[in-house]
Amino acid sequence: MVSLPKTMKAVWIEETGGTDVLQYKTDIPVPEPKEGEVLVKNEFIGINYIDTYFRSGIYPVPKFPYILGREGSGTIAAVGPNVPSDLTPNKRVVYMGQHAYAEYTPVTANYTIPIPDEISTKDAAAAILQALTAITLIREAHPVKKGEWVLVTAAAGGVGLLLCQLLKAVGARTIATASTPEKRELAKQNGAEVLLAYHEEDRDKFVEEVLQATGGEGVAAVFDSVGKVTFDACLKCVKRKGSMVSFGNASGAVEPFSIARLSQKNAKLLRPALIAYITTRDELQMYATELWDFIDKKKLNVRIHEVYPLKDVVRATQDIEGRKTTGKLLLQP
Ligand code: NDP
Description:
Layout: E1 7-13, E2 23-29, E3 37-47, H1 49-56, E4 66-67, E5 71-79, E6 92-96, E7 104-108, E8 112-114, H2 121-141, E9 149-152, H3 158-169, E10 173-177, H4 181-189, E11 194-196, H5 203-213, E12 219-224, H6 231-237, E13 238-246, E14 268-270, H7 274-277, H8 281-296, E15 304-309, H9 313-321, E16 328-332
Parallel strand pairs: 9-10, 9-12, 10-11, 12-13, 13-14, 15-16
Antiparallel strand pairs: 1-2, 1-4, 3-5, 3-7, 3-16, 5-6, 6-8
C-alpha cells in the first residue's frame, strides 16, 4: 500500500447557493475505501456543468458538508475489500463517482477502470464523463445513422465539441448552435456543417434556419443541453418520427410539458442520464473501449480549456457558468 497522509485538500459546500458557498479546505481527513471501493490519489479532476447543479440546488445534495465533483484520474492509493483484481495500488485509473474535488477520492470499482498506456492521465480525466455522454447519446438515445441531420446546442462546450466530432465520425451532418462567432468557428473546426446563433430575441428565426438547412424537413435528432430556454424551439426543429433528446439544463430545468405535443410529428422525447446507461463495470468497459478507440484513431480530440489549481475552483466555476469556456475544464490538487 501507498503511505497516506492524515489530511488532504478538498472543496466542499455546507449549503447550496452561488459560487460563494464553495469552500477550499486544507484539513479534511483522508477517507478510507470501503467494501468494493478504491481510494484514488487524484492527479486531474474534471469539472462538469452538473457540479453547478449540485452547488446551486437544482439537483439535491445527499448530505452536507458535501465534496463536489463527479470524475477524476490518478493512481490507486488504497484498496478496500472485494475489488476486481485489475485495480491494484499505484495503477493509473480514471473514474466517475462523487467527491472528486479533493486530493483523495473513494470510488466504487464499478465506475473505475485502468487507463490504457497510450492515453494520458490528463486526457482520461478530460474525456471520461463528457465523451461517454456523447457516445451514449449517439448510440443509445438516438442511434445516429449516416447522412442524418442532427442539431446540437452549446456545441462549443465540453460535451458539445465531442458530439460534433463523433457525429462527423459516424457520417452524420451537424447543425450547431453556440453563443459567439468564435465558439461557432470552433464547432465548425470540430465537424459541424451549419453554424447558427440561438436568436434569443426571435426563436422562430432559429427554427426557420434549421428547416431551411434540412430542405424543410427538420432534423432526425436534437441533442439539447441548454434546456429551459431552447426546448420549445428545438422540438419544432425535429422532423417527423425524429428524436428530441433533452440531456441538460444549463439555462434551467425544462418547464412541464404536455406529451400530446409529440403526436404532431410522432416524435420521441428522451431525457437520458449517462449514469443510467452505464450501471455496471462491463458497460463502463464496453463504452470506454469505444472511447479509447476513437481517441486512438484520431477521430476524437479532447480540447482542454484550462487546468486550474484546485484552490482556484471559484474562478473555474465562474468561467463555465459565465459561458466563457470551450471544451473541458480540469482542476489539479
Ligand atoms: P459546457 O462546457 O457545455 O458548458 C455549458 C454551456 O452551455 C456554456 O458554455 C454555454 O454555451 C451553454 N449555455 C446556454 N445557456 C446557458 C446559460 N444560461 N448559462 C450557462 N451556460 C449556458 O458544459 P458540459 O459540457 O459540462 O455540459 C454540457 C451539458 O450537458 C450540461 O447541460 C450538462 O448538464 C449536460 N450533461 C448531461 C449529462 C447527462 O448524463 N444527462 C452528462 C454530462 C453533461 P453557449 O455560450 O455557446 O450557449
